[in-house]
Write a structure and sequence with these properties.
Strand content: 15-25%
Protein name: chorismate synthase
Family: Belongs to the chorismate synthase family.
Distance between the termini: 13 Å
Structural class: alpha+beta
Helix content: 10-25%
Number of helices: 2
Low-confidence stretches: none
Keywords: Amino-acid biosynthesis, Aromatic amino acid biosynthesis, Lyase
Radius of gyration: 16 Å
GO molecular function: chorismate synthase activity; FMN binding
Shape: globular
EC number: 4.2.3.5
């Protein structure tokens, strides 16, 4: 499931090697101060490529607020946030696209969605956490 919450809901979207990832936030009251500058420090903290322990992908993780705010304040309508994937490498997975990879979520993804995302784990990628 890609939606979490009841009164305050977050729906995430996107995959590791598509054009981008993001989320829709529904249930935020109007009048709260919110800009990209408020969100960006948290995305910068989780950004890949900052350590030799993480993926070598170099994603800038620059957030854009698409909807739900005006002049830096929430409108009480759904807030759309998107982060482009700039370092997409789907071809890196061409030799592993037939079988589930060990220690990855490929098998459970196959059971849940009925197909295996051929590049980077699809929704089971760490990129999906951008919206959380």
């Amino acid at each position: 499931m890609s939606t979490f919450g009841t009164h305050f809901r977050v729906t995430t979207f996107g995959e590791s090697h598509c054009k981008g990832v993001g989320c829709i936030i529904d249930g935020c009251p109007p009048g709260l101060a919110l800009t990209e500058d408020d969100i960006q420090p948290q995305l910068t903290r989780r950004r890949p490529g900052q350590s030799n322990l993480t993926t070598p992908r170099d994603e800038k993780d620059r957030v854009t607020i698409l909807s739900g705010t005006e002049f830096g304040y929430t409108l009480g309508t759904p807030i759309g946030l998107t982060v482009p994937n700039q370092d997409q490498r789907p071809h890196d997975y061409s030799e592993t696209d037939l079988y589930p990879r060990p220690s990855h979520a490929d098998w459970t993804y196959l059971l849940k969605y009925g197909l295996k995302a051929s590049s980077g784990g699809g929704r089971a990628s760490a990129r999906e956490t951008v919206g959380k």
